[in-house]
Amino acid sequence: MNDVVAASGGALRSGQVAHEAGVNIQTLRYYERRGLLPEPDRSPGGHRLYGGEAVTTLRIIKAAQRLGFTLDEVAELLEAGRHRHGRPVPGLQERAAAKLAEVDARIADLTTIRTALVTAVAAGCDDLTECATSSCCPIPFTDLAEENRHAGPCC
Description:
The chain is an all-alpha fold. Helix content is 63%, strand content 3%. The chain is elongated.
């Protein structure tokens, strides 16, 4: 990337930024509209001109998304980071810990689902309705329904 920035006099056009960050131009513009990226300067011809930090910011956004953070959460983290003045970002530890708890809960749910599906495949279950009404069905329909009921409303 440094060669691209140096060759362009320190400013990158949209296509260069998108390419360097591994996103498409529509993603770049969307993040700009959402306020995740500051509005870039414009060339005399009206082209968007970004600094090299835009590539870093895009990479941070994509990495945070891969870690399970929503764009709203990423925006909050970026905003906090912009105002830290060399100090650690307050709340990052708490947000990462909360995200970890969410991931652990999803893993537990997926483990339960996987166990039920393995059981269904091993038992040769082929008709969901018949299986659910059979007393000898190995799938824990009642238990799974109870877990969902205790989880509270979905909306």
